[in-house]
Amino acid sequence: MIFGSHIYIRDGEDQMTAKSADVLLVGAGAMSTTLGMLLKQLDPSINIVMVERLDQVAHESTDGWNNAGTGHAAYCELNYTPVKPDGSIDTTKAFAINAAFEVSLQFWSYLVAEGALPSPKNFINPTPHQSFVWGEENVTFLRKRYEALSQSAQFADMEYSEDPDVLREWMPLVLANRDPMQKIAGTRVRYGSDVDFGSLARNMANYLDKQDNFELLLSSTVRDLTKQDDGQWRVELKNEKTGKTQTIISRFVFLGAGGGALPLLQLSDIPEGDGYGGFPVSGQWLVCKKPEIVNQHLAKVYGQAPIGAPPMSVPHLDTRIINGEKALLFGPFAGFTTKFLKQGSILDLPMSVRANNIKSMLSVGKNNMDLTRYLISEVMQSHEARVDSLRNFFPDAKNEDWELAYAGQRVQIIKKDPVKGGKLEFGTEVIASADGTLAALLGASPGASTAVNTMINIVERCFADRLATPEWQQKIKAMVPSYGESLTDDDALLKRVREYTLSTLELDA
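Request: output the structure for the sequence above.
Response:
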């Protein structure tokens, strides 16, 4: 990719100077700030403009209270290891997510060591990752899961127990006054983490904002996105506070706007985006901030999702540390709204319907009635019912100690399917134009935890020529020592990398 200078646009009879950029990042959350940091480290001279529709950075899905804050490494998330038809455990996704999170840890460690990020405790804290199940069938599943994962170096430190005394030591709130006759089991990885992705993104944005050739435009909404004959993108912005419009000409555009990425992808009109739709799912948490309760629990404890629940609704009782404040969260409880963003419009879903995606969207609606029923039941729950769900994890929970808080929006991917007409997917997916001048990230889980690996994939696809140079290869290996190698296949490399990141990020306490 060749980087250029100012470009002049003739608009009617008036000539104006459009702002030029090598890279335009739409959205100021975990994804865009990560891509901006990667590119600035690879080449400080790259001219980057970041635009954000809100007046603050990372206040949608990336904000600490809008997500679980779990450093998703597949240590405790049971939905990453489904049961195969033959009864065995499918570990494919767990190994991939674990390796991807290790990439994030390496990059964050590099930024801390270079002084580009503050002390790790400002955005990441050691929090054991645990799974907890009850009932004979679930215990059998967890035992088989542990046996399948722990054979590898990636999960060799995982512990398993069915002993109530051991589990009580791991998770005292969960075991307190529990039925002694109940069949239970749990796993633990001590060096799991709680991540304040909002703080992380804001710290990266602060660093970028101090660099040359970088500009952050807040309260700026993309109104139009057009591919020019010269291959560059003309992007029209509106400042929501002043009402003024602005034009940016960029050689590369990244749509990292969370739930807002789908409408922007549709606006770009690239053929690779044809047929994509979105299904919004909202979330709610029960929150406790009472010190006498909060201080008894230091873990993220994940259980089994109810039948018909989307992956984002896997119940878990979490320690959260946001802006230095410690709390407990339980949930999330799913809900439905037609908004694609927490601060979005109720018209987001209907406005996203197009001739090329209506068939797949109707098909998904028809074939996912169990999900629809589940969402309706979640919305109708009373506070008492929600706390009853919590009591499966914390038997002594009292209604008055917990209050309801609203999490961020997640827009699940709907795409064409040759058999069913359309299918609903719960992962993330990068859609890039054939010429590499535009990329968009759709989807939700595992989201911000694997942002570094995902953004490196975008660099590989859209900056391939630059990445092939010795300078960029040397730099990316410095940022991510495992780059180009397999942490799943190379146990010695995994050991070196893990020792480095756990020490640098102070997660080995």
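Confidence is low (pLDDT under 50) at residues 1-16.
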